[in-house]
Amino acid sequence: MRMRMRENTILTMPDTDITQPADTSTPLSTREELEATLQHGFQRAKEYRWNAAIEAFRRAVALDAESTEARFRLGWALWNAAEDIKPTFADMAFVSGAQALGFDGVAKDGRRKFQSYRQLLTDAEAYLNSVLERDSGHARARYYLSKTLQALDKRVEAKVEARKAAELDPSNRNYTQFATSFDQATNGTTTVQPRDVIMVTPTAETWDDLVLDAKTKRELRQMQLMLEKPELARELGIQPPTGILLKGAPGTGKTTIARILAHEAKCNFFAVTPADINQMYVGESEKRVRDIFAKARANAPAIIFVDEIDALLPVRQGGTAFHSDKVVNQFLQEMDGLSSNNRVFMVGATNRADMLDPAVRRGGRLSREIEIPIPDFAAREKLFSLCTRHASLDFDVSLSVLAEKTQGYSGADIKALVNEAGLQALIRITDSRLPLAKSLIMSDFLNALENLG
């Protein structure tokens, strides 16, 4: 069996040399280290030591996150590692038989092999896609992406990528033969829907744009520095958490905090809501969870932000709630796969932490919880100052009076109030027959308070 796998794997070895022209934007020492690391990974691949090759190529990506060659080699090695442990029909029958006979431990071990196989493929898909985001004409990346998609049973997308690879390099017989191997009856279309989960720009704001108490801001900066300087954290003996939970009433700025954290820590940002995950088709929700984490790992350092996480990961109940339970289980499995080495961090936001499944909040997952409180008087006054910094205020506007009148208001409420005051001023100035100063007056804010009251 092992010899058969190796013979099949030989066909996946590349027909071009690993060395690429040096990227002049990378420092010389880093370029040399990058090439040495790539060569080390390729040597491990020649020995069919795919796990060692994967680790080497991961180091190469860490050295130069924009290197398409490093990313391609990592995706290629992940696909080969998946092929090396690909379950056979005999494996499937064995697991089914063990489960039917009540040998749960044996069946669980067998299912773990299937899960490892799919995880490798999912990661390979993410890295190969990241290559094409940087170089759409990379024929080899499209070829191996096609084979990966085929293994994931995404035949329509696989067919499209295979054809593109053959068009880019028609002289390569492997590409053309693989492109023509697909069943022409596959759905009758080659239209591929875009990915739902996309990477977005975190924000241009900084910690100075937030009004928080010193303790909360210090806790958030601790998370930033552990993401930004993992080597220093390791030297200090710190075990970084894999995620944090932001708790607080609606409108306290939890989403803004997550975006600023990503910006300050120089991380890519992936925002997710329950609607992005929950789907009506069986298995589709869990697949989306896998895709999110795979895409984040391929674009590390990254932050996955889950808004309204209590609606996505509620307490597991069993029975008729099995669909929700499976999504929770998939999230827990993905979070357990995070580590300080892959620099993927998860941030959850909720105003109902009591509704979260307890397993999500235990150590090693979202164990660090930060409370984002409703602003007090001093904080409200600062928020009014911050929200009106680009507006012209009349001398009669008293921010302290406004802060007194808005007890219990959140940051979002205050921002909405200032915006409403601007609208009141707009209609007041426009309807006046006399020329008026283009500024906000106290009555604009009082009218806004009455309207929003």
How would you briefly describe this protein structure?
With 453 residues, this protein is mainly α. It is built from 20 helices and 5 strands. It folds into 3 domains: 2-135, no CATH class; 207-371, 3-Layer(aba) Sandwich (Rossmann fold); 377-452, Orthogonal Bundle (Helicase, Ruva Protein, domain 3).
- Care to count the β-strands? 5
What name is given to the CATH topology of the largest domain? Rossmann fold
**Discrete helix count:** 20
Question: Order of strands across the widest beta sheet?
Answer: 2-3-4-1-5
CATH superfamily placement of the largest domain = P-loop containing nucleotide triphosphate hydrolases
Order of helices and strands: HHHHHHHHHHHEHEHHEHHEEHHHH
- For the termini, the CA-CA separation is 73 Å
What is the CATH class designation of the largest domain?
Alpha Beta
Largest sheet: 5 strands, parallel
Note down, in words, how this protein is organized:
It is built from 20 helices and 5 strands. It is mainly alpha-helical and about 450 residues long. The protein has 3 domains: about 130 residues, no CATH class; about 160 residues, Rossmann fold (3-Layer(aba) Sandwich), CATH 3.40.50; about 80 residues, Orthogonal Bundle (Helicase, Ruva Protein, domain 3), CATH 1.10.8. It has a 5-stranded parallel sheet. Helix 3 packs antiparallel against helix 4. The longest helix has about 30 residues. The radius of gyration is 27 Å and the shape is elongated. The N terminus is likely disordered.
